[in-house]
Structure formats: C-alpha cells, structure tokens
Fold:
Amino acid sequence: MPTRVGVVVFPGSNCERDVVEAVEGLGGVGHLLWHGDSSLDGVDAVVLPGGFAHGDYLRPGAIARFSPIMGAVSAFAAEGGPVVGICNGFQVLTESGLLPGALQKNAGLKFLCRSVTLRVEAGDTALTTGVRVGTELTIPVNHFEGNYTCSPETLAQLQGDDRVVVRYVDNPNGSLDDIAGICSAGRNVVGLMPHPERASHALLGSTDGVPLLRSLLAAAGALAA
Amino acid sequence: MRFSVFVETRLHDGIADPEGATIERSLPALGFDGVTGVKVGRCFRFEVDAADATAARAEVEDMCARFLTNPVLESAAIAVEARA
Structure:
C-alpha cells in the first residue's frame, strides 16, 4: 500500500496542495485533513503546511493549536508518528508545545521570500534519515516570523541532544544559532521554516527538497509496515 | 461581579524587538531626538464575570499563560477593575 501523508488544512493554509503534489510525485499519497475534524483518518505521517492559519491572528499558530485536529496530531506524535511542520506549520508546532521555543518577527522586519542555503545538521530525524549530515540544500523561505528564539536552557538542550536539524548557512532572519529547523526529543516531530515542497521539481528551480520529503515518506512507511 | 480587564504584553528582556528598534531609529528623522527604550507590545481590553477581583485576576492570568501571550517571548501586566 502506498504511504499516506495527511496534510492538515486550517482556514488560511495555502501550501497544502503543494505538499500533496510533492508527496505524490515521490510515490506517496497525499490526503487533505480538515482542521475541524478530530481524526487523522489512519494516515502514516502528518504535515502541517505553510500559510496563515486562522489569519495568523494573535500570533502565528496561536489559534491553530486549538483546532480540534491538534489533539489527534499530538497523540500521533506521542506514539512516535512522523509530524512535520513547514513554515506556518512550524509556528503551530511551537505554539502547541510539540516543539520548544518560538518564532518571532524577522530581525530585519522584512518578509523574506527567496531561496536560502541550508546545512543538514542531524541525519536521524523524520525529515532527514536519507540525508547525510553536512549536506547543503537550496530551498525557499517565505515568512515574516521565522526568527527562531528560545531560552538559553532550551538552546543548550537542543544543541546537546543534536536536535538542530537544519541551519541557515547565511542567516536571513536573525534566528538564534542560525536555526532553520529543530526536532522533538523523539526525533519524529520536525519543524522548519524553509519549504521543501517548493524545491521538489526541476521546474521549481530546485529539487533539493526531495531528499527531505523522501525521508518523511520512509519514516511514514516504516511506521505503516 | 463584572470586571474590566486591561492586559498589556511586553517582550521579555533579551528578546529582540525589531519593531521597537525600527521605530526608535525613525523618530529622529521626524525631529524627535533623544528618545530611547522604545518597546512595542500589545494590549487587550475586555470584561469578565468573576466572584471577586482575586478570581478575576486568576482567570486572566491563566488566559495569558495559555493563550494571550507566548510565554517564551512575552510577559503580561494585568489590571482588573470592578465595574461600577
């Protein structure tokens, strides 16, 4: 059976179909999940896509974390299921406490929409199992609030437990320790600001997101098996 | 009893405030010299029903911790006043 990746649609999400398209291009099946439902419909992985869930009112992710489906996402994550939050999805994961820290406004107060170079720093997470540590990837970012921050204690923990998944080679937004993405203690929940699905086909200018999405499919497949 | 509530959020010390910094840098261009320490926060005004002021404050503190602020970034100053 093909691996099924559930992509959560919040009111204001706008990257869900890009994720479905990218996943299906790699042989998986993308399955849209409505935020107001409380079941994940038996999917093998969950992606919280980019966009402006609930209009980003209050703070990005602050209202999305109360969407009915987030209870099921938390339970799935607690059981070790692969969960990836991309951009706004990363913000939802930090607001909901599935990942530590927070994403604040970019240091330059500019909305950033361009390709950046990332370095893969941890190779054993739901998003990077098939990627060698040290690999550099060119992937687009598209955000205003992507400046990762956390307490010194949290940063020490992330560094000590090798939970920084990807770093910016040339930090575009002021993120602490050049952090572009982190993972949970169980390494199955990953949040990152760059958009791998927007670098999944030569027509998009880069295919560097493919190894990340393949890793996600592999993690999902391992769970399904 | 009904209480008027005023919540003001501010970023923790050490958390960068790019909006505040940008506003501070812009003020001299308009002739406002010597302005320092500009911080940008957010405020909320609303009303709550509660048995007394202590209960009202406790409810608002809980609301701030779980929703109105992100404790990683912000703290909140809360003012509660009984409605006449």
The longest strand of chain B covers residues 2-11. The two ends of chain B are 10 Å apart (CA to CA).
